[in-house]
Amino acid sequence: MREKTTTLYLGPQHPGITGNMMVKLSLKGDTIVKAKTEVGYLHRAFEKLLEKRNWLQCFTVMCRFCVPEPDPMENIYARAVEEIEGREVPERAKYIRTMVLELARLQSFLLWYAGQNGSAGLYTVPQWSVGDRNYILDLFEELTGGRIYHMYTWPGGVRRDLPEGFESRVLKVMDYIEKRQEDYDRMMFDNSIFQKRAQGVGIINKEKAIEWGVVGAPLRACGVKSDIRIDEPYEIYDKLDFIVPTQEGADVWARALVRRAEFKQSISIIRQIIDKMPKGEIYNKVPNPQKWTLPKGNAYVRAEAVRGEIGMFLQSDGGNKPRRVHVRGAAYVHAVSLLEDVLVGQNVSDVSFIMNSLGTCPPEIER
Amino acid sequence: MELHKEKQLLETLQGVFQLKSGEIKRRHRIEVEVEKKDVVPLLLFVKEKLGYKHLSHISCVDWIEEGRFELIYMPWSHQEQILIMVKVSIPRDAAEMENIDMIWRQANTYQRELREMFGIEFPGFVGDYDFILEDWEDIPPMRRDFDTEAYVKDHYFERPGREDAKDVRTEIAKRSGEQIPDFAKKYSR
């Protein structure tokens, strides 16, 4: 008897899909035999828009590239501009920037907890982690005025200094979420439902992982010790003491364990930063933004986000606007060529579970 | 900061290929410019012989005044911890580049975007035509001569009441009866 193949369009509007994208699945029974990523529902032509904005106006658009973790985008833009111009950044600003990046990682981890568990049908953890994430967003609101989009890290430094007593409030939140990790462990990592859903699912070919452009936690879950913060240190990461956790399983479970370990590392990093935070200036003032030109040249800078490596290629033609801004997000590879490969042979109910573990973020693909 | 590894890599590449230019930009970064015919051999060489296994990015800049596109390939080595920026220029009016998705599989996605957004063709490359755009018939939109404003005016209509593109604050002030302060007037259109 001939086995029938069913085509299923998962997305663009689907609670399990992370953002507006679609995966066209060919199924035999419940098993995926072919997957094709279809994007184009979220294209906002940011890169074209940036060619019409001056160097300072561009900075306000940067954070909008990605909702779950906008701060690394601001950071790479600021660093790319500084690299082309040769602008120095005050030491205190570098410490604050690093703290902001790590706080952004923590809130993104908590959002990932929500997505990963929600897509497994475990709805308690999302309620908790989104609630806990609010404590970090409160800190961002106090520091920058915005909860999600901060527009805080700009070329030359940061936009304002830490408010009075801010460090102690950060430490208090760190103590709280560190304690909460025990609850997450009980509900997620000790939970046999989560273990059974995650183990042996969404396996990446370990031998090919680097060649296929896998980055971040999915690469570390293949046993490769790679982290931009260590490989190519930026801001003050070379002055901090932290490890790069790895796992060998290359499946959703291994990726979850890597992120769990990284969560703890981020808390430790923030404590170290606050401990070592120097006093001083926070901003090396840029000239009048309307007349501010950069020398002709290019830069490619990268940062480690929770989803993995993100990079920005910036080209200046010597004028007051960028000639070209090109963002490379982790999802650009993970959600297209890698996802199409990993999904083959998997059960249809695991699609959004696997997508969450790979850090799929459609705004990063389309920009 | 010592740049031994970067210097050594640049010397190796200069010894094997005829580089148009080559420089160490900073630690972890070198930039080389090559002829179009040398791009694929160079990328294969750095990947297979020097261990630059990870392709971080492929980007393109439209130098419309000079009638050329500049493609930038960026492979990275996890061992050496150096990223090579390989630059190549191709003419705008015959925008064609060799396909490299057999060297790095994910280059397929990058090339689909370059074809769609810049109109660069990759002979022999099998990849779906529509990537982000759908049924696009205009000139590729990331080219510098694509006029976004004209395209918008051609394809969309103004929201009623906004045809004159008046300053929003003037309209709000009229409705609410508030006055725009003098210092703010100079910023009004």
Task: Kindly describe this structure.
The complex is a heterodimer of chains A (367) and B (189). Chain A is α+β, with helices and mostly antiparallel strands. Chain A has a single domain, classed as Cytochrome-c3 Hydrogenase, chain B (Orthogonal Bundle). Chain A has 13 helices and 8 strands. In chain A, the strands form 3 sheets. A 3-stranded antiparallel β-sheet of chain A has the order 1-2-3. In chain A, strands 6-7-8 form a 3-stranded antiparallel β-sheet. In chain A, a hairpin with a 2-residue loop joins strand 6 and strand 7. Chain B is an alpha+beta fold and 189 residues long. Chain B has a domain of 125 residues: Beta Polymerase, domain 2 (2-Layer Sandwich), CATH 3.30.460.80. Chain B is built from 6 helices and 5 strands. A 5-stranded mixed β-sheet of chain B has the order 1-2-5-4-3, with helices on one face. The longest helix of chain B has 13 residues. Chain B is elongated, with a radius of gyration of 24 Å. The model of chain B has no long low-confidence stretch (mean pLDDT 86). Chains A and B meet through strand 6, strand 7, strand 8 and helix 11 of A and strand 3 of B.
Summarize the structure.
The complex is a heterodimer of chains A (367) and B (189). Chain A has 367 residues and is α+β, with helices and mostly antiparallel strands.
CATH-derived topology of chain A: Cytochrome-c3 Hydrogenase, chain B
Say how many strands of chain B there are. 5
**Care to count the β-strands of chain A?**
8
Order of helices and strands of chain B: HEEHEEEHHHH
Beta-strand content of chain B: 15-25%
| Shape designation of chain B | elongated
Q: How many strands, which pairing sense, and closed or not: the largest β-sheet of chain B?
A: 5 strands, mixed
Radius of gyration of chain A: 21 Å
Strand order of the largest sheet of chain B: 1-2-5-4-3
The CATH top-level class label of the domain at 4-128 in chain B: Alpha Beta
**Architecture of the domain at 4-128 in chain B, according to CATH?**
2-Layer Sandwich
CATH names the topology of the domain at 4-128 in chain B as Beta Polymerase, domain 2
Q: In the CATH hierarchy, what is the architecture of chain A at level 2?
A: Orthogonal Bundle
Show unreliable segments of chain B: none
Spell out the CATH superfamily of the domain at 4-128 in chain B: NADH:ubiquinone oxidoreductase Nqo5 subunit
- Oligomeric status of the shown chains? heterodimer
Order of helices and strands of chain A: EEEHHHHHEEHHHHHEEEHHH
Summed over residues and divided by their number, the pLDDT of chain B gives a mean of: 86
The class by helix and strand makeup of chain A works out as alpha+beta
CATH C-level name of chain A: Mainly Alpha
